[in-house]
Design a protein that fits this description.
The structure holds 2 protein chains of 2 kinds. Helix content of chain A is 31%, strand content 33%. Chain A is of the alpha/beta class. Chain A has 2 domains: 186 residues, no CATH class; 140 residues, GMP Synthetase, Chain A, domain 3. Chain A has an 8-stranded mixed β-sheet. In chain A, a hairpin with a 5-residue loop joins strand 8 and strand 9. Chain B has a single domain, classed as Amino acid/polyamine transporter I (Up-down Bundle), CATH 1.20.1740.10. Chain B has 15 helices and no strands. In chain B, helix 3 runs antiparallel to helix 4. The radius of gyration of chain B is 20 Å and the shape is globular. The chains are: A alpha/beta, B mainly alpha. Chains A and B meet through helix 7 of A and helix 5 of B. Chain A: It is found in: Membrane. Chain A: Keywords: Germination, Lipoprotein, Membrane, Palmitate, Signal. Chain A: This is Ger(X)C family spore germination protein.
Chain lengths: 357, 356
């Protein structure tokens, strides 16, 4: 008898526990949340301005709603927006953070650190810089881009509108650059274009969370292939032909002689010919390509050395050669002195369907 | 009946549950470079303690360590079993409080702490009430469900690493006196002691457990090295839970879930619940041996209640860290004294048996 009673209590408790399966406390249902996809941040006179782009579904399709607010912290501004809306703002699905150029030049350290600290914003969120005031930019986005809600995000997504000459940098990488001794990052710079497009202007060199210089899209392509992001598919335009980079691989050797770092790098690019102009030979294409890439690379290296910002992560190759105490000053005392022996070898893997004359 | 592989699996998953939260942060904080040295040193000590303990247990034969100490004398029992019970109790408190706090940080930001902790204690208590064999059966079930998940995400966590961050390989020996390094032994001390309590109920062979321990080495190493290789030392040292943050950086486009951290976290939490139920059960055994008048059932209910009350009294993360630190002395005592005493007492009684 006692046994059956115990069993009944047990079953009752087990059924009661099922009530816990609801799980979350103070849960807000999805229809009471606004999920912004893009957040714009700018700073003027010690006040942050936050712009949120929130896609909202209606009977006609998706509407983009743009909301702005100022606050002493980013959170305060977001809260203000949330207060004024009928639903609560949830940054959980934020995909892109767009920073005004002026703010990027002042330094993003505080905001990036707080993005990392709070679990609301995913560390995978993409960071981009906007080369104009945020208001007109978002107005433009609202007016002219097809309202699908994620449009701006699609420009950066690797399986959507991303191009190999775009840098793709996420919050955690910027955070790493703030603290790391030997690694900086490049952030894409965009601007409103015409006819519903967004112009890509190149990449900003970010050193310790502060924008110090800018590189062109072509240089960014090289930067990407140097850092092992696939440079596949990019069409390289020259005087005589355009080629598609199929694969690039890299070999390197590093040494330190009397405090001067030496780095030997050889990049092998395998290309396929897409378009030719006049009569060209494979030899001339190879030469031309190597020349152009060399020029771009040395330009980028010079920028990186004068700004003491190691976007190429060159310091990484010396981590086993320099003691940690010295590594701390890599950017200031080693990088400008770096001697680099850079070689590019191009191989025309195939010339497409037609023979090269 | 021989349940070696159940015991080995349990040993494996209990440690997995312990590794990924505090351990990486502690090791990264303990030294600036050459992190593999503290890891391997800790692991070697763990393996030494484990094999000594097992040797003692098998010399003692098919019985638990409570019987061993009781036979050796009341003094021994007080000297070793009392601290052990206190240690299990403290371990329960820290695990419940820590994992509840992690849950609030990572996902349940609006759920009150008391509710999270309550569920954390209810489920292990239920396991423990059902007895040791059912804890092991649950372990097999949870292991079969969650070990594949862990392995999957663990292998994907290599996505963003840069091997060059592994340098410099050689560090200083100053980590030996770092508080955070001493705290990291939490992982090594807590998990193997249950082996001494299960013997007459669950029989097992030594070899399997040792193999499970060795299989853990890559997890110890990479739980620390994945954040290090993803972020670099100077960045990784700014995180409270470096491994969890580095999991957050993984993007798998073909997977329909955005935040995979939650899955890994839940698997780990389920492992920690097993750890809790084992600890509760072991504590109950010790207290029951000390005061046989108390019924095991009531003990198993009152110990978690006590744990819960203490957990509620801890106000903040800094206090948890403090508690962790106070625990350190006890932890080293347990880790050294229990295996050694088991070994010596067991071999003494074996000799006596041979003589008589």
């Amino acid at each position: 008898m006692k046994h059956t009673w115990m069993r009944a209590v047990g079953i009752a408790i087990a059924v009661g526990i099922a009530a816990l399966l609801g799980g979350c406390w103070d849960n807000r249902d999805i229809d009471h949340r606004s999920l912004p996809v893009v957040m714009g941040v700018s700073l003027s006179k010690d006040k942050y301005e936050v712009v949120l782009q929130i896609p909202e579904t209606s009977s006609k399709g998706v509407n983009l709603r743009i909301l702005k607010q100022k606050g002493r912290t980013i959170n305060q501004a977001v809260d203000k927006i949330s207060e004024r809306m009928e639903s609560s703002v949830d940054l959980l699905h934020l995909k892109v953070i767009l920073v005004e150029k002026g703010y990027a030049q002042q330094g993003l350290t505080d905001s990036i650190a707080s993005f990392m600290r709070s679990r609301d914003i995913s560390p995978k969120t993409i960071v981009a810089i906007c080369d104009e005031k945020l208001d007109p930019f978002f107005d433009y986005v609202k007016k002219s881009m097809t309202p699908r809600g994620t449009t701006l995000y699609d420009c950066f997504e690797k399986n959507a509108g991303w191009n190999p000459q775009m840098s793709l940098t996420r919050i955690w990488e910027v955070y790493r650059s703030i603290h790391s001794y030997t690694r900086d990052v490049a952030i894409p710079i965009i601007k409103s274009g015409r006819n519903g497009t967004i112009d890509y202007l190149g990449s900003a060199i970010i050193k310790n969370g502060r924008m110090v210089d800018q590189i062109t899209p072509e240089e960014t392509l090289l930067f990407n292939s140097f850092n092992g992001h696939s440079a596949q598919g990019k069409i390289e335009v020259m005087d005589k032909a355009s080629v598609m980079i199929l694969r690039s691989s890299m070999r390197h050797r590093s040494k330190i002689v009397q405090g001067t770092p030496y780095l030997y790098v050889q990049i092998t690019v395998k290309v396929s010919i897409v378009e030719t102009k006049g009569s060209v030979t494979s030899q001339s294409i190879n030469q031309e390509l190597e020349k152009i890439l060399m020029k771009r690379f040395s330009g980028m290296l010079r920028k990186s050395q004068t700004r003491e910002a190691d976007i190429l992560g060159l310091g990484q190759y010396f981590r086993n050669k320099i003691p940690r105490t010295q590594l701390r000053v890599w950017r200031e005392s080693y990088l400008p002195k770096l001697r680099m022996d850079f070689r590019i070898k191009s191989i025309i893997q195939n010339d497409g369907y037609t023979k090269l004359s | 009946m021989d349940k070696s592989w159940q015991v080995a699996l349990m040993y494996f998953i209990v440690h997995l549950g312990l590794i990924f939260f505090m351990y990486p942060g502690d090791i990264i904080a303990s030294t600036q470079d050459g992190h593999w040295i503290p890891i391997v040193l800790g692991f070697a000590l763990h393996l030494a303690a484990l094999s000594l303990y097992l040797k003692g247990l098998f010399n003692w034969g098919n019985n638990d360590i409570i019987a061993l100490y009781m036979k050796a004398g009341k003094g021994y029992a007080v000297l070793f079993l009392l601290p052990l019970a206190v240690y299990f109790f403290m371990a329960c408190i820290t695990v419940v409080r820590c994992s509840a706090e992690i849950m609030t940080i990572v996902m349940l930001s609006s759920t009150p702490l008391w509710a999270v902790m309550l569920t954390f204690l209810l489920i292990p208590t239920y396991f423990a009430l059902k007895g040791i064999t059912s804890i092991f059966r649950t372990g097999v079930l949870i292991g079969m469900m969650n070990v594949p998940i862990i392995l999957f995400f663990f292998s994907f966590s290599f996505q963003n690493i840069d091997w060059r961050y592994v340098f410099p390989m050689i560090g200083k020996a100053s980590f030996l006196t770092e508080p955070s390094y001493l705290e990291s032994f939490f992982v090594f001390a807590g998990g193997f002691l249950f082996l001494g309590f299960i013997q007459p109920h669950v029989a097992f062979r030594k070899r399997y457990v040792i193999l499970a321990a060795i299989a853990l080495l890559p997890f110890f190493i990479f739980s620390v090295y994945i954040p290090l290789l993803t972020f670099g030392q100077s960045t990784a040292s700014t995180f409270n839970f470096p491994f969890i943050v580095s999991l957050d950086t993984i993007s798998i486009t073909w997977l329909m879930f955005e935040r995979i951290t939650v899955f890994l976290l839940l698997s780990l939490i389920s492992f920690l619940m097993l750890f809790l139920s084992l600890s509760l059960w072991s504590t109950m055994r010790i207290v029951h041996a000390g005061i046989p008048a108390l019924k095991p059932r009531y003990l198993l209910v009152s110990i978690p209640v006590l744990v819960y009350v203490v957990c509620l009294a801890i106000p903040s993360w800094t206090d948890i860290v403090k508690l962790f630190w106070w625990n350190t002395y006890l932890r080293f005592y347990i880790m050294a004294a229990i295996p050694l005493s088991t070994y010596f007492l067991a071999s003494r009684s074996k000799k006596r048996m041979v003589r008589s």
